[in-house]
Structures are given as structure tokens and as C-alpha cells.
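Protocol step 4 of 5: obtain the predicted structure for the target chain.
Materials: sequence only (see below). No template structures provided, no constraints applied. The aim of this step is simply to have a reference model before the mutagenesis design in step 5. Sequence pasted as it appears in the construct record:
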Amino acid sequence: MAGIERVVVRRMELADVEAVHQIDTLSFSLPWPERSFRFELLENPLSRAWVAVVGEEKQIAAMMVLWLIVDEAHIGTLATHPNFRRLGLGARLLAHGLLAAREEGAQQSFLEVRRGNLAAQALYQRFGYEVTAVRARYYRDNGEDALLMTLADLQSEACRVRLTAFL
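Step 4 output (C-alpha cells):
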């Protein structure tokens, strides 16, 4: 991929919503409506939305929405455009968002992931997330269980070093 060496992680903007929604639609069987991304940017004070932009043409290659709730960082969604998968962009974006949440006082992080999404589970485990619960029949499209994964030591120096390594 030409230009993949130029990656910028930045806050999501309204102008990004169409591309972000496209990534979401290409990535999930239950994508968020486009208006949900607008809500996160304009109306949700708990939301921290990020994008990874690549190349000279500044294409949005990955996106993430994180909610900072008191001292917890909840990953609402994280996805990479199919053309840019397996290049480390999701990991870089997740590390960036978690480090930012850490700076805002987050002590731990949570997320739900499909039981069958082994690639995502492997990514989260590399970050130190552990399965802490199962949400039975969480996904309404097929009744698949969600695994609740927790990263409990977000403020530790070891976690900071681990996260920084992904940047």
C-alpha cells in the first residue's frame, strides 16, 4: 500500500462521518446508523472518537469510539477498512485512544467482542485485556454471545509501556 507509512491518528470530525460509517458497514453485521456517529461527535460529552488517516490523500483507514465514564474507558466500536487490515492500524488507534483516556484518569477499560471474532480477541489480549464475563445472546442478529473483556491496570507503568509499544 503506497503511503501506508504515513499514518496520523486524530480526533474524528463531522466531515469524517461518511467514511467512518462506510468502514462500520463493511466491518459489522450490525453497523451503527450514520446519525450515531454524528451524535457521538456533537452531543455525547462522554465520547472520544478517533480516526487513523493514511497517505497523501488522507484516507480514513480506521476508526474508534471510546466512552470515558468516570474512570472507565469503554470501547464502543473499533474497525479498520478491509483494504487496510493486518497493517497494525487498529492496534495503533486503540493504543492512542487508551493512552488519551489514561491521561484523562481512566483506571480500566472494557469492551464487548463477539465470541467468534478470534482476530479481535487476539488483538485485545495483546493489549492485556482478559475475558471477565459472558453476555449471553448479546448480538441480536444471530444471538451470538459477547465476551466482556477488561483491561484492569490502565494506570500502571507496565500498561503505559505496553500501549506505547503499539504507536
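Step 4 remarks: The radius of gyration is 15 Å. The longest strand covers residues 59-69.
Proceed to step 5.
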